[in-house]
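ok so for the tutorial part 2 we go from a plain amino acid sequence to predicted structure tokens. step 1 is just haveing the sequence, like this:
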Amino acid sequence: MAKVKQICEEKVCPVIEEMGYDVVEVEYAKKSDGMNLTFYIDCDKGIDLADCEKVAKVIDPLLDELNPTDDQPYIMNVSSQGLDRPLKTERDFKRNLGKEIEIVLFAKIDGKKNFKGVLKSYDEKSVTITTAKEEDLALERQKIAHIVPIIKF
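step 2 — the prediction. this is what the tokens look like for a chain of 153 residues:
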């Protein structure tokens, strides 16, 4: 499975990026309907169905030519990860600076696993939020299970 992802990252992602999109993630995983190869894309204006269709039409023949699964059947998807996707990339963190986020830890610290606050700063070792009590809280990245934006409508 890692080979499929690697081929796609090396050969398909540059084509998608040349189209003006960022590839947030490539996922090759078993789902209820069989193996799925999913390209999660993003761009500054956001992603809609037309963007997904446009990318799919371009990469479908390329995937046929590359045959990354060695003739094993799969379903190809192009998708946005949505507004509430976890923060993973540098771009995700940069876009969410000054915005409210929720952090979930692998294990409790002082009896808590969930923390909410405004993303103040981040680096490769830690993420700092400003809590509702106006306190800065730095959490080690290795202890963080996931970080998601808080969406308010």
